[in-house]
Amino acid sequence: MPFSFAPHGYSPDDLHRAYGLPSATAGGAGTVAIVDAYDDPKAETDLAAYRSYYGLPPCDSTDGCFRKLDQRGSGSGMPPPDDSWAAEIALDLDVVSAVCPACRIVLVEADSSSLADLATAEDAAAATGAIAISNSYGDHEARAQLALDPAYNHPGIAITAAAGDDGYGVNFPAASEYVTAVGGTSLVRADNTRGWVESVWPNDSSGCSAVFPKPTWQSDSGCAGRTVADVAATADPDNGVAVYHTYGIGGGPWVTMGGTSAAAPLVAAAYVLAGHAGASAYAAVPMALLPYSSAAHTGGGLFDVTSGSNGSCKPSYLCVAGPGYDGPTGLGTPDGLAAF
User: Fold this and answer.
1) Beta bridge partners of 314
2) Does a structural domain hold residue 254?
3) Residue 252 belongs to some domain of the structure
4) Cβ atoms within 10 Å, residue 146
5) Rounded to 5 degrees, what are φ and ψ at 92?
6) Is 200 contained in some domain?
């Protein structure tokens, strides 16, 4: 993460232009919950500095726009601070703010980085009234994780999970059939109609689950289990997003960050902007199916990423981008909000 006293990464306006989203100063009512581990003592003040710099409306605890809770859903038992997780928290908060400035934000901090504690925090996040939950963590899938899977089963809430940053392979909770698994791209400015071009970020994770079942809304023929990912967004830290972060090692205060940890909160915020998550008509619907149903329509609301790979595999679409669905980028990256 390069250090700087001025931002060099992508700004809110950059993200809105790249993905055809509404103006960074318009739209989007609702709450996004962010689940992370340990505490970032500077979360609220760093968030305020980021939003102020980019001219976004304030979001702090004085009016309840920003809340910080522990994994039990209270604010009285916060976990100890951690340098690395504080950087992750800053990234998640800033990306949600960039995409959906009018969203309220609840940060739920697990007692530790164990998947069991994070699953407990997930249930706490769902109980806050959030209509989207972002998860920027994961571990290689294992059968023991089946016991944690129910924590991600909250119909009507759009739950996103980062696919992972360690190349080809499947991670949990992205492998859960209850979440939208978000892969990663390299987003670069270009002299074309869109103004941007995307390819697979080589560190992006994807693949065919040997543990978790295939959702009914997923129909690729080369994987009998859950295929990761569903959609994707910018993740390459070499072309990363600007983040304001001052706690612990690596405080810049401006740093440039990436990973599918950036892509997951971006897509979670897009779900809120689209307005379906949390709506009564969708109360019993797994939000992960929406990009699949929308993609069947003309235009689809997604940019199809057709180049790049994250490893070697068979069948090749699980790790190599191509026209239509592929593992690394799923159905594609946001082109407006129609897919969400």
Assistant:
1) none
2) yes
3) yes
4) 14
5) -60, -45
6) yes
